[in-house]
Amino acid sequence: MNPLLEVHQLRSGYAGSTVLDGVDLTLNAGATLGLLGRNGVGKSTLIMTLMGLVPMSSGTVRLDGSPMPHRPHKIARAGVALVPQGRRVWPPLTVGEHLKLATRHAQPGTWTTKTVLELLPRLAERIRQPAGSLSGGEQQMLAIARALLTNPRLVLLDEPSDGLAPAIIESIMDVIHRMRTEGVAVLLVEQDLHLAFSVCDEIAVMDRGVIVHRTDTESFRSDPTTAHRLLGVA
Ligand SMILES: Nc1ncnc2c1ncn2[C@@H]1O[C@H](COP(=O)(O)OP(=O)(O)OP(=O)(O)O)[C@@H](O)[C@H]1O
């Protein structure tokens, strides 16, 4: 069986500077992989390149055995959804308007406005509120809701815990666990090790544009020496 996502020798970057320098990565359908690494090593660039938002200069990306389309809307239609760093909600649009827009090109599936609002009841309570007036945690939930409504096979989550209180991070964990239950594959870029360890089957570490380490979560968690060497944390 093909992996859902197969990345081979991927290179990309910005205006003459190479950031990804030969990334090799696979992810099976329904699996949850945490991508860790120090600041600036290229984790977000990988997410943006997979989503077609940063052009690749060489390498291959395959989704379910077929070449990944290049344009973001085609990548989304192929079943890949992005929860970007910084949420990227539209401040004047209400929660309801965001959800309506997200359903426009959605594939049919488990996730509908009803099931997403059942999972994220705080959004249901704020359906007429402009996104700009939501708290950071609520905006993060909205960004996740928007991604789920497309009924993706793969969700790329870029630092969902960034700047959020522990209670909200717990809610994000619950949502990622639910994605797993529904068979959605997740590539999670995270600095919060507690979050990554609690939801991921495996951990990969990036350094200077390549994947330098990959193991199951339990092995990574029980090997603080390696974690310290790769991430600078105990
Ligand atoms: N839009 C951009 N234009 C030019 N350089 C960029 C751009 N975005 C990122 N970079 C550079 O690319 C490199 C990798 O950045 P990236 O955001 O992918 O790292 P990261 O591992 O996600 O870091 P962090 O954990 O701090 O978010 C950095 O040197 C960064 O300055």
UniProtKB/TrEMBL annotation:
Gene Ontology biological process terms in this record: L-amino acid transport
Pfam families in UniProt: ABC_tran
UniProt keywords, alphabetically: Amino-acid transport, ATP-binding, Nucleotide-binding, Transport
Any one Gene Ontology molecular-function term assigned to this protein's record: branched-chain amino acid transmembrane transporter activity
Lineage top rank: taxon: Bacteria
Species of the source: Kibdelosporangium aridum
Keyword Transport among record annotations: yes
Span of domain ABC transporter: 5-233
Keyword S-adenosyl-L-methionine: no
Protein name: Branched-chain amino acid transport system ATP-binding protein
Protein family per UniProt: Belongs to the ABC transporter superfamily.
